Amino acid sequence: MMLPARCLDFFALLRLCVRFPRLCLACSAVLLMLHCSLSQCRAQTVVVGSKKFTESYVLAEIAKRQLAGAGFKAEHRQGLGGTIIVWQALLHGDISMYVEYTGTISEEILKVKGPMTAAEMRGALQKQGIGMSENLGFNDGYSLVMRADKAKALGIETISDLKAHPELRAGPTPEFLGRQDGWKPLCARYGLNFAEVRGIEHGLGYAAMLSDKIDLKECYTTDAKIGEYHLKVLKDDLGYFPQYQAVFLYRLDTPPRAIVAVRKLEGTIDENRMIALNVLAEKTKNYADAAAAYFKEAPATKGSRTAALLKYEWQLTVQHITLVVVSLLAAIIVSVPLGVLASKPGWGSQIILGTAGMIQTIPSLALLALLIPIFGIDKTTAIIALFLYSLLPIIQNTAVGLRDIPQPLRESAEALGLEPRAQLFKIFLPLAAGSILAGIRTSAVINVGTATLAGLIGAGGYGEPIQSGLQLNDNATILQGAVPAALLAILVQFGFNLLDRSLIPRGLRLPPARE
Fold first, then answer.
1. Cα separation, 14 vs 433, whole angstroms
2. pLDDT in tens, 182-199
3. Which of 126, 310, 375, 449 is geometrically suited to a Cys-Cys bond with 381, CB 3.0 to 4.6 A?
4. Which helix (H) or strand (E) holds 350?
5. Interacting residues of 20 by C-beta distance below 8 A, sequence separation 6+
6. Structural domains in the chain?
């Protein structure tokens, strides 16, 4: 049974994966480790992290410019999520510093009940290798916020006034729902009980309030949306919330000159100035413009902004393709041998397919959360998550392709006197190649879309502008990531169709109904 020469490379890859599974697994591990080590090789690069809200983005951009002015190569890893994720990133060394708030440090990070002095915080943080700057100059506290017209109509001025209105619909952020100083302790302190409470992402919560989908949510007292949307900040009349003074947390192994540079920002931003910078960021949909305003620099010109946007899109494309290609190659190396094993009857097949299926059912956010404590906040975490999601289609299609080989062909291969290994490599794998390639294609297309979640942990790719756009409630920014991701998925699908026609002989291709 002779096959066209154009098929030999593809089949050679399949034979390599099956004949030397341990070697391929080792190569996959080395590939991932190499990627990890390269991504962490940042000589004299200071990485600034930010949470998923406008003020954190703006302050990180200010720090980035300050570090660049001190001669460092500075990088801003945007929107790493909530407190726990960005704190873990700092502890793991994935970032060098980020802006935090004193109330959050005591309540959420150090888990201390009651007030703490700055000296006490520094002492506790230092034991974990973390330093803390002085106050940047403002307090960004929590409170609850409503539309001003609804608050006036109901006569609500303070948080205590909400006790008489259990019919109100609340939409706090998921993080605030679970915080030690968050929603449940707040309701317990004030005796609040609302019929409808649902977690909504911070930026989307304001949009939901504006469209009358919810009635109240928590806010940061320096939020730009308060003035823009004519909202009423309710008075914390029982003094529930502690002070949330803005400070930089930084690793003590950060270059000393970088720490000195960032600490020059201490006391330079009062509350009104921070609100103005937040308003500018959301008005221009550009955090860098707000940072430029802090330094009293002119914003970027239209031409330079366009060039920067094109450069940014190219950078995102390279990052996204890297995530997809590295994870997919590792999945092919592992999945094809597993698919061969799964094609054989017995309990081993059920274990392999069952395990791959179970992994596929884990929500992507949950899988990232499970991997972060092990691998940190990095591209490697995203690649491993994508690798795990790629396994099932390839394993399943490999197993199905081998099982569907007609019995007469199996008997003919045996009649030729071929040994089982020769039967697998010379006949069965070539016959199943169309099904295997279809599984690889499915995994590739799924990976392109799923890789946008890498933006949640600052791993780059098209998910970065999507997360930023959600925060800014800006469809144009969201589309900067969503449209290229969709086009890339279409391109991958088209590319695999061409590959199918060039590598797989017409007689061995799967009919359209089975693809």
1. 8
2. 899 999 999 999 989 999
3. 375
4. helix 347-361
5. none
6. 45-138+244-300 (3.40.190.10), 142-233 (3.40.190.120), 320-510 (1.10.3720.10)
Can you list the alpha helix ranges (DSSP code H) found in 79-191?
Answer: 83-92, 102-104, 118-126, 148-154, 174-178, 183-190
Q: Are strands 97-101 and 246-251 parallel, antiparallel or unpaired?
A: antiparallel
Beta-carbon neighbour count of residue 505 at 10 Å?
14
| CA distance readout (Å), 87 to 67, 76, 271 | 21, 15, 24
pLDDT value at residue 270: 92
Backbone angles phi, psi at 143, to 5 degrees: -160, -175
List Cα–Cα distances, 480 to 54, 356, 379, 444, in angstroms: 18, 33, 20, 21
DSSP 387-438: HHHHHHHHHHHHHHHHHTS-HHHHHHHHHTT--HHHHIIIIIHHHHHHHHHH
pLDDT in tens, 226-282: 888 889 999 999 989 888 999 999 999 999 999 999 999 999 999 989 999 999 988
Q: What is the pLDDT of residue 27?
A: 53
Length of the chain: 515
HEC string for 202-271:
HHHHHHHHHCCCCCEEEEECCCCHHHHCCEEECECCCCCCCCCEEEEEEECCCCHHHHHHHHCCCCCCCH
The dihedral through the CA atoms of 508, 510, 512, 515 has a sign that is: negative
Query: For residues 240 and 190, is the Cβ–Cβ distance under 8 A?
Result: yes
Measuring CA to CA, which residue among 452, 447, 479, 450 is closest to residue 464?
Answer: 452
Residue of 392, 391, 389, 374 lying closest to 457 (CA atoms) = 374
**How big, in percent rounded to 5, are the helix, strand and coil portions of the chain?**
65, 10, 25
Q: Residue 119: pLDDT band by 50, 70, 90 thresholds?
A: very high
Q: For residue 42, name the pLDDT band (cuts at 50, 70, 90).
A: very low
Q: In terms of C-beta distances under 8 Å and separation of at least 24 residues, what long-range contacts does 481-486 make, across chains too?
A: 481/316, 481/452, 481/455, 482/452, 484/313, 484/316, 484/317, 484/320, 485/320, 485/448, 485/449, 485/451, 485/452
Average model confidence (pLDDT) for the chain?
84
CB 306 within 8 A of CB 257: no
